[in-house]
What does this fold into?
Amino acid sequence: MKPKNSRNLIILVHPGEVTNWLWEDNFPFMPFESLFLARYLEEHGYDVMIVDQRVDGEWKQRVRGVVDQILWVGVTAISGPQVTDALKAAADIREIDADLPIVWGGWHPSFFPEKTINHPLADFVVTGIGELKVVQLSEFIAGGMKGELDVPGLLKKGVVKPVVPVKEKFTDLVEIPAYHLIDPDKYRTRTTWRD
It folds into this structure.
């Protein structure tokens, strides 16, 4: 059962830079990993805000406006150039509120969990399928981070334990992603803008 906590908002950040999407084949796809995870968290009683930096140049102001409600901030990253954007996003979060727990997830932290958790901008790392771990992580953070967090594939800063990759299967699928948390018009190509 979810502990009572005045902070119930989880921010899911899809890192990137706001770009003037001029070419029809060069536009951002919807952040589906965040949309599915958001719906799952909502179904477990948490409020969620999706920050897609690729289409939201005002995201820092939005986060500052709700900073007193935030339980933790999640940053997703794929190995490659997106890691640089994710590090910048995490640094911006630290600047907004140095005490907010920053949780890394996605392909890069799953492939390099120890390296990721040892970075100063990571407090937790979720490897593999996030839905299998985020509710327990949220309960742990809401409960004041007391006791042990013994969840396979979930790393906490300062706790040394080996990460053994396991094949995970998630069957409690969310049928409809949390589209209500984004503006779908920001993901359309010019060809779909015709009236």
